[in-house]
Specification:
By secondary structure, the protein is mostly helical. The chain has helices at 11-34, 38-53, 58-71, 78-95, 103-106, 109-119, 122-147; strands at 8-9, 151-152. The chain starts with 7 loop residues before the first strand and ends with a strand.
């Protein structure tokens, strides 16, 4: 066999991915906040700043991945983290590490989430996370609509 098989990601599939991601990531955040330590919070702050400072591309993807792995305590919940990452990659292959929302909207998104987590108020943190995921979802859906084609998955 020769050539590559390209699978596509429809707008409906992207919506479903973000719906499932939201469910899993909110649960991961709730679990992680229940036993967060000051050391992990310091690491999350550091990684959040790095993620907010990075531009598009591989460094941004790496910084974001490290941030969320620390935030969700991936080491303690490897299966949950793996499921979240698989869903991220489902859409992430298409956006190729680009920031899918404008800098004015996204430049402090991790900082805001870190502040909410540091406050210790799980419901506030969940609200910030949900709003962030919805914003990114909407930007990805707009990108898919504007391309007029199915997205590479």
């Amino acid at each position: 066999r020769r050539g590559a098989v390209v699978k596509t990601l429809s707008v409906e599939q992207a919506r479903e991915v973000y719906h499932i991601r939201t469910l899993l990531e909110i649960e991961a955040l709730r679990l992680a906040m229940a036993d967060i330590t000051e050391d992990r919070l310091d690491r999350i702050r550091e990684l959040g700043q790095i993620a907010d400072d990075e531009e598009e591309g591989a460094d941004f993807v790496d910084a974001r991945t490290q941030f969320y792995a620390a935030l969700y305590d991936a080491e303690s919940r490897p299966m949950l983290w793996e499921m979240i990452e698989q869903l991220r990659l489902k859409v992430g292959r298409y956006v190729l590490g680009w920031r899918v929302v404008g800098d004015h909207d996204h430049s402090h998104s991790h900082e805001e989430l870190v502040a909410a987590v540091a406050s210790g108020d799980t419901e506030v943190a969940v609200g910030v996370l949900r709003a962030h995921l919805e914003h990114v979802r909407d930007a990805v859906l707009a990108m898919l609509h504007s391309d007029g084609v199915e997205a590479v998955s």
